[in-house]
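Severity: low
Component: inverse-folding endpoint
Summary: output formatting inconsistent between runs
Steps to reproduce: submit the following structure tokens with default settings.
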């Protein structure tokens, strides 16, 4: 029986680290693709030379074309650029929409049965673009958002309470960015609600706010880059759930068609992820405060998707 194949498009920090996580988890053979000549080949070879030390037994290859990506089971798209000084939001949107649209077309040609995981930003909008460009059913195009954002909130709760992050479980909804909607009401420590611990509302609010701005906090510290360990692992955790049919509940960016009262939008909600990609969308009953934050986030994402439609000719 042939081994499964996972392709990562984009061999920058996020993509190369995703290839690393996928290889050490032995999810299948890994293809790392980038247009920069030599870079994916060099990083793939470096990973292969690490295999005997960590005893992962998969093939990792780098390529500048799509031929080696053929018949992938899962494709993770990390391609795109970060916003640079002097660049408008519209400029960034236009450039990344062009990149993600072109990449998606090539992925579909070479792996028509794959499941696509989007990591490129702006995440919700690029997920929508990939779905419309691929013409795949919605269960096969998923944006990586909640896995990362939940992990960030879990880590902050663990730090605050000096407790193992293994026991911390949280829930987030909404767009991937400053308008995300962390849900402290659904956050527990080994089943015990966060509210049962001696922690003030102000401290909880501070952790929630830090989670919303976590990406920017890392950018400010690095000065010349952005987060890559955690975003890449978020995508690989999703790929693992698909390739091992784990039926995991992971908040993710998905196309909504009436769920939560939203239509024609890609947005972060809790889903079950398995061999078919999105196996089920979970609809939570929100209280008034949560609903207000949810609606605000949805309006922000819808506006960016609308802007992208005009730029990319999808209107």
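Observed output (run 2 of 3):
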């Amino acid at each position: 029986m042939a081994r499964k194949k996972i392709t990562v498009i984009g061999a920058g920090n996020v993509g190369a680290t995703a290839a690393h996580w996928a290889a050490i988890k032995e999810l299948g053979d890994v293809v790392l693709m980038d247009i920069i000549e030599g870079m994916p080949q060099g990083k793939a070879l470096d990973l292969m030379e690490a295999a005997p030390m960590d005893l992962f037994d998969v093939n990792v290859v780098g390529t500048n074309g799509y031929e080696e990506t053929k018949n992938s089971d899962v494709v993770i798209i990390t391609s795109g650029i970060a916003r640079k000084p002097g660049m408008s939001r519209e400029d960034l949107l236009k450039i990344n929409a062009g990149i993600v649209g072109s990449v998606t077309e090539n992925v579909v040609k070479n792996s028509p049965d794959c499941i696509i995981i989007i990591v490129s930003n702006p995440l919700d909008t690029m997920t929508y673009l990939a779905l419309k460009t691929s013409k795949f059913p919605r269960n096969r195009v998923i944006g990586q958002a909640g896995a990362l954002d939940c992990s960030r909130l879990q880590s902050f709760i663990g730090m605050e309470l000096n407790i193992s992050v293994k026991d911390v479980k949280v829930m987030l909804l909404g767009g991937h960015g400053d308008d995300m909607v962390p849900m402290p009401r659904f956050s527990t420590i080994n089943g015990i609600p966060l509210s049962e611990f001696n922690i003030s509302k102000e401290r909880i609010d501070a952790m929630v706010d830090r989670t919303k701005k976590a990406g920017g906090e890392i950018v400010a510290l690095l000065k010349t880059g952005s987060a890559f360990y955690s975003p890449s692992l978020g995508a690989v955790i999703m790929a693992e759930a698909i390739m091992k049919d784990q039926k995991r509940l992971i908040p993710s960016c998905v196309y909504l068609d009436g769920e939560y009262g939203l239509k024609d939008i890609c947005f972060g909600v809790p889903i079950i992820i398995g061999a078919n990609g999105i196996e089920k969308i979970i609809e939570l009953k929100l209280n008034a405060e949560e609903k207000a934050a949810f609606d605000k986030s949805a309006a922000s994402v819808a506006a960016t998707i609308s802007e992208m439609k005009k730029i990319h000719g999808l209107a």
